[in-house]
């Protein structure tokens, strides 16, 4: 969700595909020295958050023959609100 908020903050788009969110997520985990989830597991987490009405999700979209399907996710709150809530978690504190 944090990765999605960072992408949304710097864009005029509202919805983003799983792949773009995952790419930003990988950058975050690398900078925080955390082992990333697989793209499949992260996609499962995004779907769980959409099911719980934490995120919004549009209908699945085909990417063309043989390329599978993808979901587009969007925030239900402003990016800064999401970032503030996540950054208040002590795991994001530099004093670990």
Automatic annotation (TrEMBL):
Q: What is the lineage of its organism?
A: Archaea, Methanobacteriati, Methanobacteriota, Stenosarchaea group, Halobacteria
**What is this protein's record name?**
Orc1/cdc6 family replication initiation protein
Keywords carried by this UniProt record: ATP-binding, DNA replication, Nucleotide-binding
CDD domains from the entry? Cdc6_C
Query: Which species does the entry assign this protein to?
Result: Haloarcula amylolytica JCM 13557
GO biological process: any one? DNA replication
Q: State the superkingdom.
A: Archaea
Q: Which SMART domains match?
A: Cdc6_C
Provide the Cdc6 C-terminal domain boundaries: 1-86
**UniProt family annotation:** Belongs to the CDC6/cdc18 family.
Keyword ATP-binding present in the record's keywords: the answer is yes
Q: Sorted alphabetically, which SUPFAM superfamilies does this protein's record hold?
A: Winged helix' DNA-binding domain
> What would be one Pfam family of this protein?
WHD_Cdc6
Q: Which Gene Ontology MF annotations are present?
A: ATP binding
């Amino acid at each position: 969700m944090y990765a999605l908020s960072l992408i949304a903050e710097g864009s005029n788009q509202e919805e983003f595909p799983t792949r773009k969110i995952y790419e930003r997520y990988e950058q975050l985990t690398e900078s925080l020295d955390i082992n990333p989830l697989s793209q499949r597991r992260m996609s499962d987490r995004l779907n769980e958050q959409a099911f719980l009405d934490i995120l919004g999700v549009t209908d699945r979209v085909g990417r063309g023959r043989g390329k599978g399907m993808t979901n587009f996710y969007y925030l239900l709150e402003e990016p800064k609100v999401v970032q503030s809530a996540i950054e208040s978690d002590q795991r994001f504190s530099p004093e670990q």
